[in-house]
Each structure stands twice: as C-alpha cells, then as structure tokens.
Amino acid sequence: MGERRILVIEGDEGLREFFREWLEKAEYSVISAPDADAGLLGFHAHCPDLIIINEQLEELTRYEFIARIRRASHHSDTPILAVIQGRAPTGDVLRAGADAVIRIPDGMDEIIPTVRKLLGSRARANDQN
Length: 129
Known about the structure:
Blueprint: E1 5-9, H1 13-25, E2 29-33, H2 36-46, E3 50-54, H3 62-71, E4 80-85, H4 91-96, E5 100-104, H5 111-128
Parallel strand pairs: 1-2, 1-3, 3-4, 4-5
C-alpha cells in the first residue's frame, strides 16, 4: 500500500501535516501542496492515485480546481476527496466532480476508510479496462 500516492492540497500547514502523518501511518505516500497552483503542479508531476482537497483555496476555487483535473488529458479519473469544514453544503462539490466529501472535524475518523474505498474503486475500474 505504501506505493499509493495521495496528493493533499491544504492551505493550513497544521492540517496539511496532520493529513500527512495520518496517511503515512496508514502506509500511503503523501505529496502535499499548500495551494491550488502547487496542487496542479503536483498532480501533473506525480500522477497521484488520489487527491484530498480542502474547501478553501485562494488562487482557484475548489470547483475550478476539480474541473481542471477532470479535463486533464491524463489521469482525469483520479479520485478526489473533498474535505469540508462545518456545515457547508456538499452537493455543489459533488456536482463539480468530487468523488466523496467528508466534513471535519466530525468526519475525521472516516478519512482513511474513505481513502481505501476510493482507491479500491479505482483499482477495480483499472482492472476492467
């Protein structure tokens, strides 16, 4: 499982490090980016197996970022897990192309199981192609 690369795009350094530690403890390789521009560079350079994105991005909105990933000529099917704080609505981000949404802090325990589920779904889809 350590070969699976996850790109974490999170503006808050503390949360970014929290995600890194938690995901590495679960034996994933983590690429982290502090903003959308760095996230797009990381996506194209590392071709991650999954993207975790926070709701707040400064350069691009989360929706624009997801749209760019979905339009990418390579790996446009990369699963995207959106992290939403508080009671923000989830429908818009799902319609934009995210594969799953987790609310924090309430859903923190759901992150690793959701990551496993999304990566498992992608593996099955790749096996069928």
